[in-house]
Amino acid sequence: MAGWIDRLKADPIPWLLEESEPAVRHQTLRLLLDRPANDPEVVAASEAAMRSDPIAAILAAQSPEGWWVRPGNGYQPKYTSTVWQVMFLDQMGADGHDPRVRAGCEYILSHSQAAGGGFSFRGQVIGSPEPSGVAHCLNGNLLRALIGFGWLDDPRVQASLDWQTASITGDGVIRFYQSATSGPGFRCSMNYGDPCAWGAVKALLALARVPAHLRTPNVARAIEQGTDFLLSRDPAIADYPMGPNATPSGSWFKLGFPVGYITDVLQTLEALCEAGAAEDPRLDSAVQWVIDQQNAAGRWSNRHSYASQTAVKFEAARGSSKWVTLRACGVLKAMAEDTKSRRPVGAGSS
Questions:
Q1: Among 1, 17, 134, 182, which one is most buried in terms of CB atoms within 10 A?
Q2: pLDDT tens digits for range 237-276
Q3: Enclosing H/E stretch for 181
Q4: What SS3 class is residue 9?
C-alpha cells in the first residue's frame, strides 16, 4: 500500500475508515485494504451500511413492487426514479442479496429492457418494434450494476450484454436508430452522431465487470475497441469527438459522486484500469491531473454531487468527499499494482 499512499499529501485511510459512514468504510476495507468479503469487519461494515443513510434512505423510499417514485420504465424523473437508485446503490456497494435490492433489479429487468436486449430510457413498448431509446450510457450503467449485484447468469442480463458488445463492434444482429445509438463504435445521436466517450466509459465499465474467465470473444473484442477509443485521445484533455462543440464539457473536470450518465476524467481511468490498461503510459497525464486535485489532507472534493437533484443527500457539494477520495485512491492503487514493471505513474520522462 505504501507505494500509492506515498503519492498523497497525507494518508486518508483513517478518515475513510471512520464508522460514521459505514458504506465508505465497507468499500475502503474491500477495495483499498483488500479484506475478503467474509472478514468480520467487512461483514459488520456492510450490515451497518444497509442500516444507515444514504443506502437506508433510498431503500425506505422504494415501493413494495420494487420501483421508486412511480411505476413504469424507471428513467424519469432524473435522478430519483428506479434506474438511478439501482445505479447509486451499486456505486455505494449495497448488498445484492438484500430482497429490496433484488426487487429493484427485477423491476428494471421487467420494465426497462427493450426487445433487442438493451436498456431503454423509453422502456418496453408493448406491441411496437424495439424502441429507439437505447444508449450506451444507460445500458452500460445498468448492466454494470446488475452484474455487480449477481445477475450475470440471468438470460435478460446476457441479452443486455449481447446488445452492448454488438453495438460497439457492429457484429451480430442489431438495429441502430438515428434518435439514439446511431451506429457502431459508440456513435450516438445525442453526440451529433459522433462516437460518445461518456457512453464508451459506461460500456467499458460494464464489460470489464464480466470476470475474465467468462468473457466471450465478442466481449473481449468490445473491450479492446472501447479501450482503443478512450486511449485515442489524452484522457486528461478529453477532447473526444463532440460534433460542433469546440471544447470538451466542463463536467469532465468536476470529480463527483454519485455518477450518472455524464462522466469525468477519474471514471475514464477507472474504466481503463478495470479493462486491463492500467500499465499504458498514455494514462500518465490523467493520473497526474487527478493527483493534483487533492488538498493538503490528501482528500478530494465533490464538485458534482447532484445535491439539488436527488431525493437523498449523499454528501455536501465541494467539501472534502469521502466518496471521491475513495474513487481516486482506488485508481492510484490499481495503477501502482499494475505498473510495477515500468516507471511510476505520473512521473516525468528522464
A1: 134
A2: 999 999 888 799 999 999 999 999 999 999 999 999 999 9
A3: strand 181-183
A4: coil
Residue 294: partners with Cβ closer than 8 Å, 6 or more residues away: 8, 9, 300, 328
Q: Where are the alpha helices (DSSP H) in 172-264?
A: 197-208, 217-230
What's the CATH number where 144 sits?
Answer: 1.50.10
Flag whether 165 is in a domain: yes
pLDDT, tens only, 265-304: 999 999 999 999 999 999 999 999 999 999 999 999 999 9
Tell me the one-letter amino acid at 172: G
Please state, in angstroms and rounded to a whole number, the distance separating the CA atoms of residues 142 and 274.
Answer: 17
* 28 grid coordinates: 475502503
Asked whether residue 167 is domain-assigned, the answer is yes
Are the beta carbons of 143 and 161 closer than 8 angstroms?
yes
> What is the rounded end-to-end Cα distance, in angstroms, of the chain?
25
Could you tell me which of 118, 53, 45 has the C-alpha nearest to residue 88? 53
Please give the helix or strand (H or E) that residue 41 lies within, else none.
helix 40-51
Q: Is residue 128 part of a domain?
A: yes
Q: Which residues pair with 113 in a beta bridge?
A: 119
Total of domains in the chain: 1
Report CA Rg, the chain. 19
- Region of 98 on the Ramachandran plot (φ > 0 left; ψ -120 to 50 alpha; else beta): beta
Query: Contact at 8 Å (CB) between 85 and 127?
Result: no
The pair phi, psi for residue 183, each rounded to 5°, is 175, 175
36-50, 129-143, 193-207, 323-337: segment of lowest average pLDDT: 129-143
The Cα 135–Cα 139 span in angstroms is: 6
Chain mean pLDDT for the chain: 92
Distance (Å, whole) CA 116 – CA 173: 9
How far apart, in whole angstroms, are the C-alpha atoms of residue 175 and residue 115?
11
Please give the residue range of the domain that contains residue 160: 47-283+307-321
pTM: 0.93
